[in-house]
Structure formats: structure tokens, C-alpha cells
Design brief:
Layout lengths: L1 E3 L1 H6 L5 E3 L3 H6 L6 E2 L17 E4 L4 H12 L4 E4 L2 H7 L7
Parallel strand pairs: 1-5, 2-3, 2-4, 4-5
InterPro entries: GlpE_sulfurtransferase (IPR050229), Rhodanese-like_dom (IPR001763), Rhodanese-like_dom_sf (IPR036873), Thiosulphate_STrfase_CS (IPR001307)
Protein name: Rhodanese-like domain-containing protein
Length: about 100
């Protein structure tokens, strides 16, 4: 499984970011520019995934890792963000609501 750190995420440009946390978690604060596709809804929303490579984030990195594994098996070019949104916030990076 491909992974990146939040430091690497902060440097990336032009790569879509999918946040797989539940809606209430996303609305409480997320990485700016992220698109919310909750893990619990993802199976019915696969057509909303980007056609190109994209990154996947959750709160700590566990849910997003499972999603990346499943999507990679389906042929998607997905990368997990290690440490998730919690690591992003812990570094004092900006958060959107």
C-alpha cells in the first residue's frame, strides 16, 4: 500500500484528497480541499471517486488504510495519509469547517 505523511500531503498539489470519516467528523474540521466520501457510504458512491491518482485520509490512518487496500484491489491509484487528520491538526496546519 502506498502511503504519505501529512508533511508530504501539505506539499502535494493537484492530487485530490478523499476524507473517509463520517459526515459529523468531517464537518467538525478537515484538511482544506478534501472531499467527504464516508467509508460507510463509499460502496454506493464509487462513481464519485477521481479517475486519476488520489489520497485518502481519516482521523488516525486506520480507516483510510482499509479503504486504500480495498480500492487498490479494484484498480484505483490510492495513497493512504499516515496519521490522518489528527496528525495534520497536531502540526498546527489549517483546518476547514
Amino acid at each position: 500500500m502506498k502511503t504519505i505523511t501529512v508533511d508530504q500531503l501539505a506539499q502535494r498539489e493537484g492530487v485530490p484528497l478523499i476524507d473517509v470519516r463520517e459526515r459529523h467528523e468531517f464537518e467538525a474540521g478537515h484538511v482544506p480541499g478534501a472531499l467527504n466520501l464516508p467509508m460507510s457510504e463509499l460502496g454506493g458512491r464509487l462513481d464519485e471517486l477521481p479517475g486519476e491518482a488520489f489520497d485518502v485520509i481519516c482521523e488516525l490512518g486506520g480507516r483510510s488504510a482499509r479503504v486504500v487496500e480495498a480500492l487498490t484491489e479494484r484498480g484505483h491509484d490510492a495513497t493512504n495519509v499516515e496519521g490522518g487528520t489528527a496528525a495534520w491538526v497536531a502540526q498546527g496546519r489549517p483546518v476547514a469547517q
